[in-house]
Amino acid sequence: MSLQTPTEAQTAARTGVKPIDYNSSNCDTYLKNKGCIMKPHPSGIADDDKEFYQTLLQSVSDTPKGTVFDEDALEYLNLKGEWKNETGITRMISQLVVPSAEVEMCRGKLQPLRLVESINEPWTWSTSLNLDATLPQPKLDPSLKRLPTPQPDYAVGFSRDAFTPDQLKKLNPYLGSDTENSGFKSSAFQGTEDMLFPFLTSECKCFKGDLHVARKQNAHAMARSLRGVFELFKLAKCQNELHRKVLGFSIIHNHELVSIYAHYVVIENFQAKYYQDKIRGFLIDPSSPDKVWSSHHFVMAVYQKWAPKHLTRLCSAINKLSDPDVIMEDRSTVQPTVLTQQMVSERNSIAMSHEPPLPGPPENSRSKSRKGNY
After folding, report:
1. What is the DSSP string of 124-166?
2. What distance in Å separates the CA atoms of residue 127 and residue 117, rounded to the nearest whole number?
3. Which intervals hold domain DUF7924 (predicted)?
4. Which terminus of the chain is more solvent-facing, meaning fewer CB atoms within 10 Å of its CB: N or C?
């Protein structure tokens, strides 16, 4: 799987500046500088959240029959899996490790939840960690150091249908857009165009692939996701509610190993940092056929039990946002640097009590907006 979208590849060819490679130590430095820490915080996850994800890990759900995870087929996977490329591993087991949210909705297993998934789709609507997360942003200056746009093998978030019309109205000033008048703008609240507040990402590798690279890919995507939730709660002036709370999960796997991570926010000195704990790891092994469905059971529990709770949390913050009719007269006036006086005042009140978000590039360094997030 390519780690660059076509737009990024074209930009790299045009400017001579390439995104930081996930294999590079510069990637670790970049993530750390942006507050993404690929290890547990000393204080760890809040006790109530820890207890809750433990119940998720112990959950059991129906599993499909006639798959490569059947006992009589596991030996084949064990013998042949290491010779398969990433596409082969994805075809054989990825949907068994991470069941499709949209398929399960169609089967009536997740009603009335409204989820949306992306499959190897670039998160071009997601704001870069280099830019201010509060308002929609134009494309990132390609000369800045950056990672490739996240492109998870699989990801899940909420569809717009998960929110009421009034809630969408309050979110609208902060969502991305692609219009002829204002050009393309990304949002910290989106992954793909149709996905709001992503909370699950998964990366698959073949035998020759590097699972540590997969971890960094997930860490980057989840840092963007968690930052969006934090910024939402900061706008609602209730960000401290998120301290040490699990706001998403990620999974990495190949043909024989699966690891599950919980991602959470730690707020220190008025700034948010994003940590991760490995909460389960296991082998897909014929000698332990009872374990091979562990990830499937967990993900189904995330959809059925955790996601509704998370949605309620998001909605509680959205409901506290100001009515956009009060803040601005027209949605078309919203620009990254052109705000009505009331919105400026609202943002300043946040900045007075909290560290500002990571700064974007100077205005004069931004080129004309067009679709694509570099």
Report:
1. TTBPPTTS-SSS-B-PPPTTS--PPPP--SEEEEE-GGGS-HH
2. 18
3. 82-318
4. N
Model confidence pLDDT, tens digit, residues 334-354: 333 333 333 444 444 433 333
Minimal CA–CA distance to 160: which of 322, 318, 306?
A: 318
Identify whether the C-beta of residue 176 lies closer than 8 Å to the C-beta of residue 185.
yes
182 in Cβ contact with 138 (< 8 Å): no
Whether the CB-CB separation of 236 and 320 falls below 8 Å is answered with yes
How many other C-beta atoms lie within 10 A of the C-beta of residue 135? 21
Whether 1 maps to a domain, the answer reads no
Range of the domain at 214: 6-365
CB-based contact 184:138 (threshold 8 Å): yes
Please state whether 10 falls in left (phi above 0), alpha (psi between -120 and 50) or beta: alpha
Helix/strand/coil for 79? helix
CA 225 to CA 218: how far, in whole Å?
10
- CB-based contact 275:39 (threshold 8 Å): yes
Cα angle vertex 337, ends 335, 341, to 5°?
90
Q: How high is the pLDDT of residue 140?
A: 57
How far apart are the C-alpha atoms of 111 and 205, rounded to whole Å? 32
Residues contacting residue 358 through CB under 8 Å, at least 6 positions apart: 34, 35, 129, 130, 131, 132, 133
Instruction: Give pLDDT, residue 287.
Output: 84
374 part of a folded domain = no
pLDDT in tens, 103-135: 999 998 887 789 999 999 999 999 999 887 666
pTM over 0.85: no
User: Is 199 among the domain residues?
Assistant: yes
Contact at 8 Å (CB) between 35 and 272? yes
Choose between 27 and 328: higher pLDDT.
Answer: 27
Q: Return the percent helix, strand and coil in the chain, to nearest 5.
A: 40, 15, 40
Nearest Cα to 89, choosing from 4, 218, 1, 151? 1
In contact, 61 and 300? CB cutoff 8 Å? yes
* DSSP 3-state of 178: strand
Q: Decide if 68 is inside a domain.
A: yes
